[in-house]
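ugh ok fine here u go
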Amino acid sequence: MKSFTTLLLLLVTALPLALLSQSLEPQFDALMQAEWPADGPGATALVAVEGHIVYHKAFGQANLELEVPMRPEMVFEIASITKQFTAVAVLILMEEGKLSLDDDLSKFLPDYPVGERTITVHHLLNHTSGIKSYTSMEAWANTWRQDKTPQEMVDVFQDEPVDFEPGEAYSYNNSAYFLLGMVIEAASGMTYEEFIEQEIFAPLGMDQSRYGSQSEIIANRASGYQNNGEFQNTEYLSLTQPYAAGALMSTVEDLFTWNRAIRANTLVSGETIAKAFTNHTLNNGENINYGYGWVIDEIYGSRTLEHSGGILATGPTPSTRRKRTCLWPFSPTAIARTPPTSLPAWPRWPWTRRRRRPPMPYL
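structure:
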């Protein structure tokens, strides 16, 4: 079984604001209450239409032991949604002339054993590098509690055989985004944490977002749980290990700010961000339905740009997750294709719908 404290951001267009908020609010409430009852791990949700927030509520509990109700401003580990920030950080450095998407990994990490292969920044960004993802390695689970430097984490996977040659296949890869964090540090002269906070969070006013920590006191932090027949606190994971692949924390309000900034080309140009939203291809021309930090998918024929994430935890299956965070911006929306007084007929939540490719594993 799976259970997680959840954050959901849904951005839509093409419906009148008053009509959406008035007619659909009871249905959104019913969906949220059914999925996250008042006495269980909770969730926060924000729905915006054409840049205006029309729904912003919290459900369930932020802390079961202390019986703290969830509030809309709660802070979550956003896990793999971190990859959007890492990707945009790379694009910022590209516009500054400090790196190229065609640069070899060895330019920034000369000691990384690439052999005769050419593994580029582009391959890392869209999960086509072939490098072994450390979260798929059984040995990694034995180290979750250990604080590690970036190089110590790279030592975990760098000598593993590649899964395929660069560009020959797609395989969701946390090692690749971990390495991108080190590329950002080498190209910028700043730590990954410093770059994200100074070049992204601060300029956008994302005051409740930060690099995660298990030891620091973080106001409004929501607790995560797993369900092994009964709710339990999640297994400890040092957030030095997700790093640029999944260590950031945020709120639905800050993620709304982030999404508006991306759409407004605040951090990089429209031409540059289009690279992140491109459905990239393999060497044989096959689309992979992934850009740079964004999944390219669809609902009822309407294109979506999205990502989700979860932090792994122990449990009856290896896929048990302790938190899940989902960002679903799409335009035009499937909701606009249905009568405005009802929700669309696809499964209750986007992460349960049939996808054009198998769901990605998460960090």
